Amino acid sequence: xxxxxxxxxxxxxxxxxxxxxxxxxxxxxxxxxxxxxxxxxxxxxxxxxxxxxxxxxxxxxxxxxxxxxxxxxxxxxxxxxxxxxxxxxxxxxxxxxxxxxxxxxxxxxxxxxxxxxxxxxxxxxxxxxxxxxxxxxxxxxxxxxxxxxxxxxxxxxxxxxxxxxxxxxxxxxxxxxxxxxxxxxxxxxxxxx
Length: 193
Fold this sequence. Notes:
Residues 5-65 form the HTH tetR-type domain. Helix content is 78%, strand content 0%. The protein has 193 residues and is mainly alpha-helical. The protein starts with a helix and ends in a 5-residue tail after the last helix.
């Protein structure tokens, strides 16, 4: 049983890397099996389709980001907002260190690539974004803001995605992504911290 868990995890982690560095559509089942060092039978034992694997990859990345959100749960609302920028910086910084450049947001990449061709995956990614927006909104509601909490929550999420995309295409560093998110938060707070 333990070997099965290890094989499944290896497939998911290998797919996460390949989807980030190459793209979902450019990676075939054979590529995934080679990268994970498993046979096709093992792949299909765990995942009836590549789309099912993509959902597992989305869930893997979402769990890491949500773990980072959880670490700031006991902080003040403003500190929780800034923690969002810190979480993005840590995740993107880890990608930058591993791949030598910003490779994009796992969710943004998949959303851009598949949202018009795979409705089931679009819905799965949209649910992750919705959970994040709700968590950001909860922090916004507790802060003293210059804008409506719903507006700022959506702006932060959009700023994250936009800055990651710009960093990816312009070759910017992960620190620049976080700095821009922090600026948005600081200028939206009535009493910047």
